Amino acid sequence: MADENNTPLYQSADGPVIFTDGVPSIAHGAGVVKFYLGRFDPDAKGGNPANQAIAAQVVMPAPAFAATAAFFSSKVKDLVLDKVLTQEQVDEIGAMFEAEAGGGEQKGK
Questions:
Q1: Which residue has the higher pLDDT, 104 or 20?
Q2: What is the pLDDT of residue 108?
Q3: How far apart are the first and last CA of the chain?
Q4: 7 versus 67: which is more confidently predicted?
Q5: Using an 8 Å Cβ cutoff, are 53 and 63 in contact?
Q6: For the CA atoms of 86, 101, 52, 33, what is the dihedral angle to 10 degrees?
Q7: Is 93 helix (H, G, I), strand (E, B) or coil?
Q8: Contact at 8 Å (CB) between 71 and 64?
Q9: Who's near 3: CB < 8 A, 6+ residues apart?
């Protein structure tokens, strides 16, 4: 984003790069949303299955989380238009996250 004076804003090369396989946990309260970024780490010796590990924790104001969710939703539509994902893949993934009354936990886990 740029400010009202159209001053450009550039990403810092010093910022961390975090690889994630997804979001295994999310909670909200007191006007904030907290979620964890998770990844599957392989066994260094190769003899055991990968283990899910927390890569980072993100805490943000609820309105900022809602804006981020809308941004990601828009980007998913772009990924379908650009044929990076199919609509069938998006629908299948969405079906895994049908919200229960009062909750948004992933079903089937």
A1: 20
A2: 44
A3: 37
A4: 67
A5: no
A6: 100
A7: helix
A8: no
A9: 9
Question: What does the block give as tokens for 79?
Answer: 């990924």
DSSP letter at 49 equals -
Mean pLDDT of the region 63-82: 98
d(CA 74, CA 59): 22
Residues in CB range of 50: below 8 A, 6 or more apart: 40, 41, 42, 43
Question: Residue 20 has what pLDDT?
Answer: 97
Q: Of the candidates 20, 61, 59, which has an alpha carbon nearest to the alpha carbon of residue 37? A: 20
Count H helices, E strands: the chain? 2, 3
Q: Assess whether pLDDT exceeds 90 at residue 104.
A: no
Verdict on whether the full-model pTM lies above 0.90? no
What value does the CA radius of gyration of the chain take, rounded to a whole number of Å? Answer: 17
The percent of residues in the chain predicted with pLDDT above 70, rounded, is 85
- According to DSSP, the residues that pair with 74 across neighbouring strands are none
Give the burial class of 82: count Cβ atoms within 10 A of its Cβ; 0-12 exposed, 13-18 middle, 19 or more buried: exposed
